[in-house]
Design brief:
Blueprint: E1 2-6, E2 9-13, H1 25-41, E3 50-57, E4 60-67, E5 70-76, H2 88-97, H3 117-127
Antiparallel strand pairs: 1-2, 3-4, 4-5
Length: 134
């Protein structure tokens, strides 16, 4: 539990522990590319696709999707849909029609500090953070 002041009141919030990993931009690009290649090879990913209909069946889902000029129905055992802000209203309607209760997300804040490497290494040594790849 972390306590902080809010005006003249003391308030508290839970703080989650997250592992820290320092990756170079080259390493990040490789991880993303490797995952994209795997997902595409297994027909698990569709970008720039409009979902027209989601139908729940006994073991999975049928999705009617629009890709460029063609519409098709595909089967998926599990689905992950990332709508961004634009699709939030549609997503709420879609899950309600499937009988799924919408719950607010868990809010997660991340902090990023940028400074000269020599200062980050010293801070890392003091607080036992992963600094081997800085």
């Amino acid at each position: 539990m972390f306590e902080m002041t809010k005006g003249s009141q003391i308030t508290s919030m839970d703080v989650k522990d997250y592992e820290i990993s320092a990756l170079s931009s080259k390493q990040v690009k490789k991880v993303l590319q490797d995952n994209f290649v795997y997902l595409k090879a297994h027909q698990c990913i569709s970008l720039q696709t409009t979902v027209k209909k989601i139908e729940k069946i006994k073991k999975g889902f049928y999705l009617t999707v629009q890709r460029e000029d063609e519409e098709e129905t595909v089967y998926a055992e599990k689905i992950v849909i990332a709508t961004g802000r634009v699709g939030v209203a549609w997503w709420k309607e879609a899950i309600a029609s499937l009988g799924i209760k919408a719950e607010p997300p868990i809010i997660s804040l991340g902090f990023r500090f940028e400074m000269d490497k020599k200062y980050l290494v010293e801070i890392g040594k003091r607080y036992y953070m992963c600094v081997s790849q800085l």
